[in-house]
Amino acid sequence: MITAKPIILNIKTVNLSDEQFYQLCQNNENWQLEKTAKGELIIMPPVGAISGNRESEFNGLVWLWNRQTNLGKVFSSSTIFNLPNGGNRSPDVAWISQERWDKLSQEEQEGFAKICPDFVIELRSRTDSLTQLQEKMQEYVDSGLRLGWLVDPQNQRIEIYRQNQEIEIVSLPTSLSGEDVLPGFILELSRF
């Protein structure tokens, strides 16, 4: 079995502007790119079928909850957010409250929105580095993330990230509450 790992390029001295990064992504639409707050360009390989299915399930469950509550907007893993700390990141699942989304202009909504999601899920696939995903989660927290879940099937655990709190680690299987960020949302992880 062939497994690809992300390629990480140090672009600190290039000073890639937000517009240049946007153009780079537009000109290379077959690549999944991210830029870290530390000035690294990450070229990510596609995920395998198991991870793709899990990601789709998570996104579908958050979408269904949001469809019933109508409290915000749900975004897929192909959406890049221009984070306040300088990173351009693409979570596996993201949600932004309607109130915060509506504050963005139409132009901001159409590009890489300059906003940090209120909620994200990152799903670790077999080729993902746990350390790199933890750094990514910390970038979200540093940018204003209210609640985030790093789902790690390899270690059978979930890391829960919240503003101004220590990371909470729970073992799988479990159920997770959307707390006051996604009120009434419960994710049952017994089947993942």
Task: Describe the structure in your own words.
The protein has helices spanning 18-27, 49-69, 98-102, 106-110, 130-142, and strands spanning 7-10, 32-35, 40-44, 72-75, 81-82, 88-89, 93-97, 119-123, 147-152, 157-162, 168-171, 175-177, 186-188. It is α+β, with helices and mostly antiparallel strands and 192 residues long. The strands form 4 sheets. The protein has a 6-stranded mixed sheet, with helices on both faces. The model has no long low-confidence stretch (mean pLDDT 91).
- Amino-to-carboxy terminus distance: 22 Å
Low-confidence stretches: none
- Cα-based radius of gyration, to the nearest Å: 16 Å
Total beta-strand segments = 13
Give the overall silhouette.
Answer: globular
Q: Estimate what percentage of residues fall within beta strands.
A: 25-35%
Helical amount among residues, as a percent range?
A: 25-40%
The class by helix and strand makeup works out as alpha+beta
Major beta sheet, strand line-up = 4-7-8-9-10-11
